[in-house]
Amino acid sequence: FLKLSPVQTSKMHSAILVILLATGAAALNNGIIHPALGYNTWNDFRCNGINEQHVKEVADQMSKLGLDKKGYIYINIDDCWAVSRDSNGKLVPDPTAFPNGMKAVADYVHSKGFKFGIYTDRGDKTCAGRPASYGHEKIDAETFASWGVDYLKEDSCNASQDHVTAFGEYGQMRDGLNSTGRQIYFSLCGWNSWYAPVGNSLGNSWRIAGDCNQWPSVYNAIRVNEYLAPYASKGAYNDPDMLVGSNPVAAVHNTPDQARTQFSLWAVMTAPLLIGSSVLNISQWDLETYSNEEVLAIDQDDLNRQGVVIQSTCPAHDQATYELQVKQKIAAVPACQQIWFKPLANGNAALCFVNFDTAPQNITCDNACLTKIGFPSANVRDVWQHKDLGKMTQLTAAVGADGASQTYVISKA
């Protein structure tokens, strides 16, 4: 569970009470029942190259690669698209980057069989200093719906970090989206674990940690999310951030093994899977990673249960301290291992063995470990080798170094 001090706990309880009283325990009534699968421009382009032509090319490429058939339905534009508001108070896209307006882009994305996502911020400016939605939630929600938007990410730059204020501002946008009558997946981007206890009253997913860029920041998101499973449910998910691929062409990348571990763990976490690597120049490794239907099935499983850590040698983790070290580029990933467990709707379970050490390690879930999760004797399938390994009463995984992993689906023998 989320670890809070007594003062933090009291503040959290007060904030939850205020937001529930203020909203009548309202929720986002949009029928979403699985975490989002798709693509986001930020880890690929940042602010460079965010334009109509590139978005169309991404849609074309995702269709050509067959990613739509794997379930990747959202193509999302992140920050740096808006420049002003018109005389009616409506957001205006950059006329140079989007000469035909945003509806034309959405129409093209829809014509290729995808859904279209866009970005705003609950402050008065976005993280990149563009116009944002503070005080304009209703008109922005109506504008997005009129353009054909299917997914909205709302960031938290240039905004109050007071819990009650943040919840109230996100509630304003939630209500605006509800009033449009259009199904729009609402992604809160507040970068803090304190959104988790109220997240399902506000949106479909909520960011629980800082941005995932290099491997230490991914490790941070993993450690923060291990306590938040009780707050996830159908249509409402903890979001540890977008996927970071292994292609150096993108704005940010990690090693191939680390990219694959992030994908595997995010699936066990029942997290949104938004590709942040270069789609236009995708590597064969990343394409194979993001196309693995067995792993995608773990993420999209109908039970909608977030996985939990059942075995760990990792030290205690303080989110605020570690994220400061990440920003200062002095964060170290400890030499430790974890095993994550996720129950599945058909009675099976997924296990992900992760090695954060700089040397390869054998990681064992012994019979006591398997018995604890209800599988004293298990049929084991390696979902990356696509191979049945047979009946086992304990499972030892030979895991490579520096963020490598092994992922299995087990059934009762």
Q: What does this protein structure show overall?
A:
The structure is a single chain. Strand 12 and strand 13 form a beta hairpin. By secondary structure, this protein is of the alpha/beta class. The protein has 13 helices and 18 strands. The protein starts with 5 loop residues before the first helix and ends with a strand. The N terminus is likely disordered. The protein has an 8-stranded parallel β-sheet with strand order 9-8-7-6-5-2-1-10.
Specify the number of helices: 13
The span between the termini is 31 Å
What is the 3D form? globular
Mean pLDDT across all amino acids:
94
List the helices and strands and how they pair.
Layout: H1 6-23, E1 37-40, H2 42-45, H3 52-65, E2 74-76, E3 82-85, E4 91-93, H4 102-111, E5 115-121, H5 137-147, E6 151-155, H6 163-180, E7 185-188, H7 196-199, E8 205-207, H8 215-225, E9 237-239, H9 256-268, E10 273-275, H10 284-290, H11 293-299, E11 308-312, H12 319-327, E12 337-343, E13 349-355, E14 361-365, H13 367-372, E15 378-382, E16 387-392, E17 395-399, E18 404-412
Parallel strand pairs: 1-2, 1-10, 2-5, 5-6, 6-7, 7-8, 8-9
Antiparallel strand pairs: 3-4, 11-12, 12-13, 13-18, 14-17, 15-16, 15-18
